Amino acid sequence: MQLLLIHSDYIEYQTKKQTPVAEKIEESLKSGRLEEALTAFTAVESVDEANPEEAIKKAVSEIEKVATQVKTDRIMLYPYAHLSSDLSSPKVAVEVLKGIETALSGKYEVKRAPFGWYKAFTISCKGHPLSELSRNIRPDGTAKAVCKTVAVEEKEEVVSEALKAEGTARSYWRILTLDGELHEVESFDLTPYPKLQKFVNYEMSKSRAVERAPPHVELMRRLELADYEPGSDSGNMRYYPKGRLVKSLLENYVLDVATDFGAMEVETPIMYDMNHPTLKKYLDRFPARQYSIESDKRQMFLRFAACFGQFLMNHDMTISYKNLPLRMIEMTRYSFRKEQRGELVGLRRLRAFTMPDMHTLCEDMDQAVNQFKQQYDLCIDVLENVGIHIDDYEVAIRFTKDFYESNKDLVVSMAKTVNKPVLVEMWDTRFFYFVLKFEFNFVDALDKASALSTVQIDVENAERYDISYASADGKLERPTVLHCSPSGAIERCIYALLEKAAMETEEGKVPMLPLWLSPTQVRVVPVSEKHLAFAEEFSKKLDCRVDVDDRDLSIGKKVREAGREWVPYVVVIGDKEIEEGTVNVTIRSESEQNKPKKVQMTPEELNTRIKEETAGKPYRKLPLAKYLSARPKFF
């Protein structure tokens, strides 16, 4: 069970609509208010199903402890599914919530918001040090059952030697400044670099679990992009038409960039033989947990990257030094990693994800270093065009001590390129297959960091997979290999864009996606039915994703809903627009909160503006019906 405990001046709620799993309630429970209360936002999880009574007991104990600390005798129990991606059945959830309510009622004034209803709520947090606390409840009574489950999983789960080494490897953390100096983290003043401070804390703490849902989870649902799939394993998502469009555009963009960079697109299987001699060795060198399955009495695993598929292909190829550097890329839909449950949340960390995976065979280390520099710059450009700028992420550079001493200028140049200090991790001994690696890490609203782009110099796998090329003198030589993901996981790019928008909203800015990624680029809003024909004619003059709000709603509500959907351009058409031939366009990118920017434009002028903003980016047609009255609701 997950608890988020807020000491509040007041909490009030109003039910809006019941879901299919809503509990039946009396009229008096459809709204409620409690002042000077401890609000317990609660998510009952699947682990609680084995022993609901123990879950109730533990939760009551934690709530009472905090109530005593903040000196309140009023408690609001509020079911809040967003705290977890591993929820119990509705039946157990209601049973546990009612049990907590009953146990507390004799000692406190308790109100419970109903389960399974969409609710509007307002809360005023007191803001003292104990006013916001979270608790992760694991009932003791489930220990035996949980241990049995874990024991079974560990027989099947592959835990690589590299993953074990990652937990025990001794590394040195430093801050690299633009003058090329390495500073002890503890003695370096990070105050001027608040995002770097958060990233350093995240990396050095090794705490990856998320205690509450980050803002992008609510946004991905409200914008009808993606949602959890309860019918699958945790960390596997469903994507609605708008989300599929955004994913597809990002995939196509990264593939276009890689192709322009000289990479050849390939496709490889998602399933491999765990006992294949080469693959078995590589499994032990990659720090990730795998899904394993049995097929025809063979133990198989689902790929966690495209590395081995491409390396097996390289092994069978005839390659000359004239072909180098040789680049291949695959858009892996999907790669699979069995991330731990507490780390899975929204689009940030998944078990099935789409990874653009590019590998470059280089003649020698000198060529590899040259390619590394180019691909570092390439990754910066890719994220910039996605809408994630240098100021939005922090850089981590990881290397062996020997490599650093031989290539210090390369490492320092990476900090100079982004023009800010970077976090460095250095090993005395090489535990992994790479000697140099960087990642661009996005720090979200919960101060959690997630890696986006990365490039690695691999000094093991050419030998392991028996990959060779013919040199100028006809001898067979081993190439040096680069691993590169120009953007990182596609889902994580969407996560970063949504988290960035949420944080910008807190700063008073208007949230939006880049125009080329916006599912609807222009919405035409006729004032009344008599303006619909002109609205249709106007929409046909636009070469973009344009829809028409033909619903029988007030003009104010139509415009507000377009704003909630982050539509970049909203065109209102009434009598004046029909008479004059120009339209009133609200430009979201130039607007402020509660202060929209409106401009009179012709359709030709609007078309020109949109083409200029989306130049060089991929395009797909509108993913839903053009008329809003014909659209279903996905969330």
UniProtKB/TrEMBL annotation:
It comes from the Archaea. The keyword Lipoprotein does not apply. GO terms for cellular component: cytoplasm. Binds 1 zinc ion per subunit. Its EC number is 6.1.1.3. It holds the Pfam family HGTP_anticodon. GO terms for biological process: threonyl-tRNA aminoacylation. Zn(2+) binds at residues 307, 359, 483. Its cofactor is Zn(2+). It catalyses: tRNA(Thr) + L-threonine + ATP = L-threonyl-tRNA(Thr) + AMP + diphosphate + H(+). It is found in: Cytoplasm. Residues 215-514 form the Aminoacyl-transfer RNA synthetases class-II family profile domain. Signal peptide: none annotated. Belongs to the class-II aminoacyl-tRNA synthetase family. Archaea-specific ThrRS editing domain subfamily. Homodimer. NCBIfam families: PRK03991.1 (NF003068), thrS (TIGR00418). This is Threonine--tRNA ligase. It comes from Methanosarcina lacustris Z-7289.
